[in-house]
Amino acid sequence: MKILPIPCLEDNYSYLIIEENTKQGAVVDPVEPHKILSVAQENGVDLKLVLTTHHHWDHAGGNDKIKQLVPDIKIYGGSVDNVQGCTNKVENGDKLSLGDDINILSLHTPCHTKGHISYFVTGKEGEDPAVFTGDTLFIAGCGKFFEGTAEQMYQSLCVTLGSLPNPTQVYCGHEYTVKNLQFALTIEPENAKTSQKLTWAEQKRKEGLPTIPSSIKEELETNPFMRVDLPEVQGKVGCTSPVEALREIRQRKDNWRG
């Protein structure tokens, strides 16, 4: 399994997932279809699927165009998310496959939008799995609660995504890593792993390189939104339950002007 990040718009990522035996491909959130097709052609990839994380224009806005350009392509999106151009609606737990070796599991991760889907992708034995988290989980952050509640985000982040295997590679929808890590240090200033990751991320961005992927293990170590089960993190924000802490940290992030 090969995954190619494709920077789009100002700070979005689309991703091309390639099954290497058959050269079949799936693309996550192809907001700039011509860019995606050119990367697919350079790599000799036959595009089969679009995996849409959620209905916002900067993720789903290229679906109609890619369908015109690749008429046989199937466009997947959450069943309650009203995704532009969607041909196949998915629910939590639905399974798809790509080529010989790639399996894709749909995970309903609501809050940012009601029907937000994250896609958990596994390849050959011995390869790290990957998860495409759209705007639910960012590196060291999470999406705004546009259509949901702190309870839902807790379930999506800490239960659904937090229980994926530690080595799972995390591919999110935007390049927000530096700002997110700066904010994370306002919650846990003594977290050495967060400080180290911030230094690393700043260097990457200086070189014009992406900071993705992260891993579930790294997120559990550095992402304050995924650390709300820890009493010490709850204590930092004056809360006594994970959901309360998550709500408080999100409010602080919304008001933070770092």
Describe this structure in words.
This protein is of the alpha/beta class and 258 residues long. It has 9 helices and 14 strands. The strands form 3 sheets. The protein has a 6-stranded mixed beta sheet, with helices on one face. A 6-stranded mixed beta sheet has the order 7-8-9-10-13-14. The longest helix has 15 residues, at 192-206. The protein is globular. The mean pLDDT is 98.
Strand-helix topology:
Blueprint: E1 2-8, E2 12-19, E3 24-28, H1 33-42, E4 46-51, H2 57-60, H3 63-69, E5 74-78, E6 88-90, E7 95-98, E8 102-108, E9 117-122, E10 130-134, E11 137-138, E12 141-142, H4 150-161, E13 169-172, H5 177-187, H6 192-206, E14 214-215, H7 216-222, H8 231-236, H9 242-255
Parallel strand pairs: 3-4, 4-5, 5-6, 10-13
Antiparallel strand pairs: 1-2, 2-3, 7-8, 8-9, 9-10, 11-12, 13-14
| Oligomeric description of these chains | single chain
Q: Nearest-angstrom radius of gyration?
A: 18 Å
The parts where pLDDT drops under 50 for at least 5 residues are none
- Estimate percent helicity: 25-40%
Strand order of the largest sheet: 1-2-3-4-5-6
Query: What's the total helix number?
Result: 9
What shape does the CA trace take? globular
Distance between the termini: 38 Å
Please supply descriptive tags for the structure shown above.
258 residues, alpha/beta, six-stranded mixed β-sheet, 9 helices, 33% helix
Would you summarize the structure shown here?
With 258 residues, the chain is α/β, with parallel strands linked by helices.
